Every structure is written in C-alpha cells, then in structure tokens.
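Researcher: Hi, I'm a grad student and pretty new to this. My advisor asked me to get structures for two proteins we've been looking at. I'm not sure of the right format, so I'll just paste the first sequence and hope you can take it from there.
Model: That works fine. Here's the first sequence with its structure tokens right after it:
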Amino acid sequence: MKKITFLFTLGLMLSLFSLSLAAEKPRLGVLRFTNQTSAGWWSGSMGSELQDMLAAELANIGAFQVLERKEIDAVLGEQNLGASGRIDSQTKAKIGKIKGAKYLVAGTVSAFEVQTSGTGGGISIMGLSVGGKNDKAYMAVDLKVIDTTTGEIVDARTVEASSTSYGLALGASVGSVSGNLGNYEKTPTGKAIRACIMEIAEYLECSMVKGKSDPCMSEYAGKESTRREKTKKSIDLQ
C-alpha cells in the first residue's frame, strides 16, 4: 500500500512539474537591430531604439519573459553592492537569481523605400512650408530566432509593412537648419517602422507560443508565399 501511494505521489509530482514547464513563458532577449539599407532615418542609435521598441512590444503582449539585456550591468552592480555588506541583508538583491534567455531575437532592416508623388500647390510663409503630397513607406525586416544553448537558428522569416499618408505635408526651414515638424512616429516612415515591430511580435507569439498547428501560422505562410512571388517577379533572370 505504501509503495502504491509513493508511486502515485511521484507520478503526481512529475505531472505537476511537466505542467509547470509547459506553462513557462519563453524567455527572450532582443538583440540590437542592424541595417543593410541606405535609409535616411537610420542613425547610430536607431539599432538600439528598434531593440527597445520590440522588447516593449513583446512585453506588452504578455506571452513572453522578456529579459532586458541592455540593463544587465546595472543589475549586476546592484547585486555587487548588496554583496559588499553595505546594504541591509533583508533588502539586498540576491546573487544568482538573474534569468538567462533561452532565445535571442535578431532583426536586420533589409529593405526600405519611400515614394512621394504630387506637389499639391504648396505655399511657403516665413520659412513654414505647406504642400499637398502622397507619401508611401515600405520596410522589410529579416528576423532570426537563435537558441542560446545550441546557437542554432530555430526560426527565420522576413516581415514586411507599409504605410501611406495622403493630404498635407508640413515642414519648416529656418536659415541653414531644416526639418519636419513633429517626429517620425507621425509620418509614413514611422508608421511602417511601428507596423513592422508589431508584426514581428505577433509572429513570434504565433510561432513560439501558439504553436505551428495554430491557424495563425497558415496566415503567415500565406503572407510568406505572396512575398516570395512578388520578389521573384521583380528579379530579371535574363
């Protein structure tokens, strides 16, 4: 009887442990984005800004444990301060509790285009220019998911997004200094960037959390098929 009880208890514990592992959210770290285009908006800090945007989007979804790799030095500094003995033992940060990422997400901006058409009879008053025009921005990001244990690329996909803006364009110029009023977030460029980040986060949730058998994967397979067909048509094989 004791043996049966022991085996039953052991089986229950193993089942609970398996359920716990299955319920654990994937642990992700987001790497700094890289750029292979000549996009005018790209600057030295843009890779880190896109990294932050994707990390925040993934955290907002709530399907992942997103590990902030950029702030790891600050966390280690706090732990080292606690270990020095100058911090109350009840409140100091514990050493050895930092979680490691199971996967790293890498993104490369592989294509970016902006098309502008129409002038709309713009006017200029004291350095402030107002003119009607149509803008369209297109952006593609090559996405890779890397297993930190094996270094293997376990998932890869190209994500695309575009944004179109119709109506008035507003800009200003004073002396030798010029620039658009507002920021990229309010432009087709900014909208295309944001749309790409959101699409990446939603794809990762579909692929890594919902699973390959979920209907959402059929939707992404259709998008990938369409993208490949468009790419083939744009290539001259003569």
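Researcher: Oh nice, that was easy. Here's the second one.
Model: And its structure:
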Amino acid sequence: MITGASGPPPRFIAHKVRNFLKNSKVRQEFTHVATPEENSYIEAFHSILVREVIERNEFVSYFEAKDTIQRFIKHYNERRLHRSIGFTTPQQKWEEAMPNALTMLEQMSN
C-alpha cells in the first residue's frame, strides 16, 4: 500500500498476503539476488518505466518523482492495454481470474 506524504503509514501485511496466496493455490517464486534474467516480467516493466517515465521527465523533487511514478503504475495496471494478456489491462485480467481477491486483500490490510 502506497500512500501520499500526508496519508497513514503503510501496514506490513506480507504474512497475510503469503497466506492468501497459499490458500488461493498460487505458488510464489523467488529469484536469486543479482539475476535479472530470472524475472523477465519485472525487468520488462522496469524497461517500460524508464523509457516512458524516467527518460521523459526531469523531476524537481523526490515527491514529484514519486507522484509521477505512482500515477504511471496506476495507468499501467488499470488503463494500459497489454498485448501479452490479450489486449486487456492487468486489473481486468486479475478480476477475471480472482473475482473476490480484491475484497480479500482489502480485508487483510484492515
């Protein structure tokens, strides 16, 4: 959970998320340190983030950079169509696969 500078501090819910994934029969996969080739998905995301946000902007403050990146991530997940998942958004794909998951994650963070 990422909030603005004036919002409440994020809550540590890693154990709840781990249990949720386990109960949902989702297998977590961890990569080795300094082996980016093991996680091509995040590497592709970082490449897109750098190309579409970092290289196109000159930030005057940390907070401006944080706000811009947060807005991009929201756009990336909720509005940007992804060819690899049938020209849908990650949010649409998630809701399709896990219709009750968002509610369960919201409950975990409370």
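Researcher: Is there anything I should tell my advisor about the second?
Model: You could mention this: The mean pLDDT is 84.
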